[in-house]
Amino acid sequence: MRKALTLSTLLLTCALSAQTDPHHVPRRIFIPDGRPVAPTVEDLQRASATVLWSEDFETGLNGWTVNTATGPVVWTTTSTGNTGGYTPGPLQSTTGYPGGTWIAADSDLQGAAGVSENTSITSPPITTLGLEAYMILKFEQSFRQLNDDQTLVEVSANGGTNWTVYSVNTEVAGNQSTPGAPQAQTVYLNITGALNGGSNDIRIRFHWLSDEGYTYSWQVDDVALLAVEQNDLRLLSATYADWNTDEDNFAGLPYSIYPIDELRELKFKAMVINNGSQTQTNVRLKVDVDGPGSNDVTLYSQGITLAPGEVDSLFIVGYTPIAQIGIFLLNMEVVQDQIEDLSDDNSTLQRFEVQPDRFSRDLGVMDSDLDNQGVAYEAGNWFHVLSFDQTLYAIEIALSARTDPGVFVKGVLYDQARNFVMETEAYEVHNGDLNTLGGSTYLCLPLISPVPLLEEQDYLVTAAHFGGPLEVWVATSGTSTPLTSLLLDGAQNNWFYIQQTPMVRMNLDPTASVVEQRASQHALQAAPSVFEESTVIRFELPSAARTTWQLTDVSGRIIADGDLGVRAAGQHSLELSGSDLAPGAYLFTLLDQGTRSTLRIVRNGVR
Description:
The chain has 607 residues and is mainly beta. It has 4 domains: 31-227, Jelly Rolls (Sandwich), CATH 2.60.120.200; 233-356, Immunoglobulin-like (Sandwich); 359-514, Jelly Rolls (Sandwich), CATH 2.60.120; 515-607, Immunoglobulin-like (Sandwich). It is built from 2 helices and 46 strands. The strands form 10 sheets. Strands 2, 4, 5, 7, 10, 11 and 13 form a 7-stranded antiparallel sheet that branches.
């Protein structure tokens, strides 16, 4: 079964023409029939909420009716779930797997390529809740996206004549699943607006739509209607860098790693909903910043008033992180004058890092991958450089284990008009370069010539595959706002935007231009590469050899060395202590019988 994320399977993509502003790409958006409402999603259980009605499908459909308008996919009960290639597996819900039953729209099992799918499943009338004007719809789910598959929850308060449409899972990018899958994600929708003050004939409908067909699945279980509390805010979304597609540059993106000379004002934004039955006053966003050392601060937004069911945004501007190496932890929370009844969904923890010379958009841990089915392509990210004295020395790329060893890859730099600026030498990929899910191994590819970067300019950095029978799968980590991560299709010579974040980074470290890229001969890795107490250096010898190592600082001064004696062919490791190392960058070099491999590591500052 084909599960490659190719050009035809990119989520929300659209070609760029030569006359188009290179930053602002026209979008193709599917808008379903009905009245769309922003969903509210939460992974935590709300144990104290009163259950008004529920369905767990343990004794079958129990009056739920299936309607399939087009295609072969039909909602069914299942006890095995979606089990095809690259699928999330059976739904581990409260009453689901193992041993239970749930419902699923399984395109992987029933679908046919190129045949569109439109199937829904509707509850029987719920007729005993006419006095309940405020209500939460809860269900547990697992969903995996291939392209622009649509998962809709629809609620009727008049027997199915009119429906309010809630589009869920819109944040799930191509070839990715809901968080934690196959463990269930719990979704809470405030359906107060659909009830029109209360109803004696409520109906709930789950609606699966796929234009392409033969994709993945949507699995649903443990559906319930919950009573609301009096005082119940929910944090719908939050970011420390509010950016939108109407902006002129990419300065305001939420970078995961900022170079110390590239720190900028952060613009916090949170969306909050009043899920309770009472008006909430002085609703504010509170951000506790836990920076390196003693650089902690608490920030507040202006207060607002929220009526029941109302959604609004909260903003904090004017904060620029202090220029110090380390990790910044951000506890973002919504607070109000009233005492919160259910606080489990009021906050989120986010983070970013400040390093001497790395610039990153990705989250550092592979959660998916992408390729172009043997066709030449490039995939990468936009960055915005503020400083006037930055120089790009290398491009860092992470590759998935689905990449074929022996294939060649390179990094490419473009200016803000997407004109070619510079590239790296082509690099032959080895087994030790590759990542499985959760991996964080990057290739450091020096540019042929270092490039001084212009201040207040956007730059695009990409990983490039030359095409051919050997595949390159670029690792991805996290999601990108539309227009901010791009893919170039070599066959069409057109740019497209993607919503997976390629693990492609800028390296501003002068030592990167002299690091030997033969490290993969030893499959040399450091876990972690940025450390405080210690790191484990792993390497592989092709044959028995006398092996030595050196640790040097950026000036070339030897800080430590060792003789490992004669080691047998195979995999080995050694632990390197950071207790005697000052914070900063170092080069670890392994030598065996004339073969030299060099790896860059960083001793982090103590928080």
